[in-house]
Structure formats: C-alpha cells, structure tokens
Specification:
Number of helices: 5
CATH architecture: 4-Layer Sandwich
CATH class: Alpha Beta
Number of domains: 1
Order of helices and strands: HEEEEEEHHEEEEHHEE
Distance between the termini: 38 Å
Structural class: alpha+beta
Shape: globular
Length: about 200
C-alpha cells in the first residue's frame, strides 16, 4: 500500500487551512481529476456545522461518505449537548478512520473552526491527527502552496492578509501543478460569527 497509496492520495488538488487573527481560513482549487479533468467547479470545502468546516483531497466517494457522517454526528451532538468542538469532531473522525485502517477511506482532511478560539487540524486517511500549527496544506499542489505560505506567513495576520496569502498559494499551485486547477479559488472563513464563503 505504501508508496502507491501515497501517490494516489497526492493526485488532484490543493487545499489550505490557515489561522489568522480572529478566525480560521480554508481555501481550495476547484478542479477534479481522474487522469483527465472531470470538473472545473468541484466543491472541496464543506461546512459541517455553524462553527466547523473542512477541506478535502482524495477519492470523491470516500470524501462524500465522510462529510455525510460528520454532518449527521455534529447535528446529533448539537441536539443533545450544544455545538461540538472542532477538537471533538477531529478526534471522532480520527477514531473512525483509524478503525478503518485495513480498508481506508482515501481522504486527507484539513478541519478548522472556531469555538472560543481558532482551531486547525490535519487528519490523514489512517486517523492520524496533526495540530498546533498555524497552517496546513494537502494535495498534489501542497508543496507549491506550502512554499508560498511559509515565505509570507506571520503571526496575527489580518483577515484580508490571510485571504490574499491563501489566494496566492492556491494560484501558484494551479499554475505549476497539472492536477490542481479550475477557474476559481474557493475561500471560506470561520470566526465568532460563524461560517461564510467569499
């Protein structure tokens, strides 16, 4: 599974998650590929709850199953206990993916949201959760986007600065990575007022 699996996972998208002053930004390209361009307007950012969203890279069927599962779990939790935390939902997903590690759901996720503060997690197909970073990237264009972000990211970016940096990172990947593309860049922001797309 090793190298071939990693190669398949890294073919076809660029997504970014970034903490800025007052919130979390998620951004992605909009092209889906399967050896050819299937769509130039694919949604890769999904709102899960009013305060949580995620970016996705991987196999579309697996991504759709994960998104449906998380939306329903967040809704059930909310009916009984109020809003679930980003860390709680990331932990739940990590446990589910780890439980399926023999037959993995081929998806790489950046989950971000806002509770009392900004939270950002990267979750791999086997349930590994990374946290504590101010930004993450996924997909085949990830190395290109990472280079752009690392060269310009600073603590306490304003919302406007974060949006511009994310757009530059995604557009750089769209220019140089043949699997990342589309005509648009999708950007979502999550802060104390909830989720919105720009």
């Amino acid at each position: 599974m090793g190298e071939d699996f990693e190669k398949k996972l890294k073919t076809g998208t660029t997504t970014v998650g970034m903490v800025y002053n007052g919130g979390v930004l998620l951004a992605s390209d909009t092209q889906s590929t399967a050896g050819y361009i299937e769509s130039r307007s694919e949604r890769k950012i999904h709102k899960i709850a009013d305060n949580i969203a995620l970016t996705t890279a991987g196999v579309v069927g697996d991504i759709q199953a994960v998104v449906r599962f998380l939306k329903s779990e967040a809704k059930i939790y909310q009916m009984n206990n109020g809003h679930i935390t980003v860390k709680g939902l990331a932990t739940l997903l990590g446990n589910v993916l780890h439980g399926n590690r023999m037959f993995p759901l081929i998806t790489s996720i950046i989950m971000g949201g806002y509770n009392k503060d900004s939270e950002l997690f990267a979750i791999d197909p086997f349930g590994g959760i990374s946290s504590g970073e101010k930004f993450f990237v996924t997909g085949s264009g990830g190395p290109l986007a990472m280079g752009v972000i690392e060269s310009s990211y600073k603590e306490n970016l304003s919302e406007k600065e974060a949006v511009e940096l994310a757009k530059k990172a995604i557009s750089t990947a769209q220019e140089r990575d043949i699997y990342s593309g589309g005509r648009k860049i999708m950007v979502a922001l999550i802060d104390k007022d909830g989720y919105r797309e720009i």
